[in-house]
Write a structure and sequence with these properties.
- The complex is a heterodimer of chains A (291) and B (94).
- The longest helix of chain A is centred in the last third of the chain and has 19 residues.
- The N and C termini of chain A lie far apart (53 Å).
- Chain A contains eleven helices and eleven strands.
- Helix content of chain A is 43%, strand content 19%.
- With 291 residues, chain A is an alpha/beta fold.
- Chain A folds into two domains: 71 residues, no CATH class; 206 residues, 3-Layer(aba) Sandwich (Rossmann fold).
- Chain B has two helices and five strands.
- The N and C termini of chain B lie far apart (42 Å).
- Chain B has a single domain, classed as Roll (Ubiquitin-like (UB roll)), CATH 3.10.20.
- The chains are: A alpha/beta (291), B alpha+beta (94).
- At the A-B interface, helix 5, strand 8, strand 9, helix 9 and helix 10 of A face helix 1 and strand 4 of B.
Amino acid sequence: MESNTADKDIIRYIAGSAEAYFAPDGKRLPVISLKTAASIANSQGISTKEVEITALKQGIVPRRYLRNIGTIGLVGQIKLLQSTVAVVGAGGLGGTVIELLARQGVGHLIIIDNDCFTERDLNRQIMSTERNLGEYKVTVAAKRAGEINSATTVTTFRERLTKENAQKLLGSAQVVADGLDNLPSRLAVEQACRQLAIPYVYASIAGFGGQLMTIFPEDTGLSSVYGSSNTIPGQGIETKIGNPTATPAIIAALQVQEVVKIITGVGKPARNQILLVDARECIIDKIELGR
Amino acid sequence: MALVTVRFYSLWRSYLDTDSTTLQADHIDDALTQLEEKFGSRLREKLEAAGIHLDGKIQDYSLILLNGIALRNLKSTALKEGDVLHIFPPAIGG
């Protein structure tokens, strides 16, 4: 009873603080500002995320998500705020994935990495700066996510994901995004995701190109491309041609779209196919994978 | 003999300056031998010119799928009319 009264109070505060926003098509939409959401959260002793979810359920859009709503809808934004996404690796791919998921309004991020930033990372790892060299990537990434979106809570694990700890680290995630740089770790993630019955958005990069595949527990997954775990190649072509600046951003952006599609149910994830992105020739190929 | 299409992707397509070819073969080993004869040295020369040294044959440093299945996972290595081989470099970085 008390809880219902409190909920009603929160709804009343939100509705009373809503402002009108006129979309470019002339449609009127009630919105609340970042400042208002924070103020209600503070006065009611709840999180900004709870305020935003409550507002969205009333058809009131936190202004920060206005440009999301046309594509994913109010329900899609609520689902994202209620979701937990794990990002394994906070380097080239993972750093941009974290940045974008926080901006998208994912409610909870699990970030797993045991490395610190070095000068070699500065060309492509979006979280790295000259000032934070030597700092742990998870620490920097968590701070950045919090600065981007106070509704996004972050859990960090400053350790290397292994076959042994993968299920424990990924256990509360709904989706896992790949920010790794080696196949054995990817196979450990894939196996854990199968056991946890959650989807895994695989990606990897080399030079001006990259690969992406969304793997649901029942899909064939990495073995359809790499064969069995004892025949996987040790290294990729990236050891020869490197990872230039824009490539991780391109592939990570596609990964984030996959995560958003999975959580919101909007669109069709790239399942049972491998996307080969070739920015050198401006071509994206899709190969349908056999089972 | 089965008519098989071979498709090259990403860097291999750029360096070979073609996206596909066809060949006649009944067995995967025969197809790979023909591929190596036709494209192996050209690909390695182009890679070498770009400062990339790779040893071995195309299948040693490429990912190859037959009709979307990794060669390592094939139950049968016999080829049939209309089969498609997909060939591309492994990208493992992140």
